[in-house]
């Protein structure tokens, strides 16, 4: 059975991510390498999500004030509660709006 246009596109997007991530192997600085991979993952995810969802990294905060550890990728729903603090890709996200983390 032949791949559909959507399957071909999705495969191409993921393949591009894998190539870009592989290109980082030569970098010595692990933090920079990790941050770039996070940006690559975020870009791939964003291409498949509707505008109601946002993607960033940071801390998740629940209503009791408990904080998560640093989350590399946070997917949240803009319709529920917007991030408490958000500068560029880094923020503090209310637990009620977080859909997934990586």
How is this fold's topology laid out?
Blueprint: H1 5-22, H2 30-46, E1 53-61, E2 71-77, E3 85-87, E4 90-94, E5 98-101
Parallel strand pairs: 1-4
Antiparallel strand pairs: 1-2, 2-5, 3-4
Helix pairs in contact: 1-2
State the secondary-structure class: alpha+beta
C-alpha Rg (nearest Å)? 16 Å
**Major sheet summary line:** 5 strands, mixed
User: Which stretches are poorly predicted, pLDDT < 50 over at least 5 residues?
Assistant: none
Q: Report the order of strands and helices.
A: HHEEEEE
Q: Determine the number of helices (DSSP H or I, runs of at least 4 residues).
A: 2
General description of the model:
The protein is an alpha+beta fold and 102 residues long. It folds into 2 domains: 1-48; 51-102, no CATH class. The chain is built from 2 helices and 5 strands; from the N terminus they run ααβββββ. It has helices at 5-22, 30-46, and strands at residues 53-61, 71-77, 85-87, 90-94, 98-101. The relative contact order is 0.15. The model has no long low-confidence stretch (mean pLDDT 89).
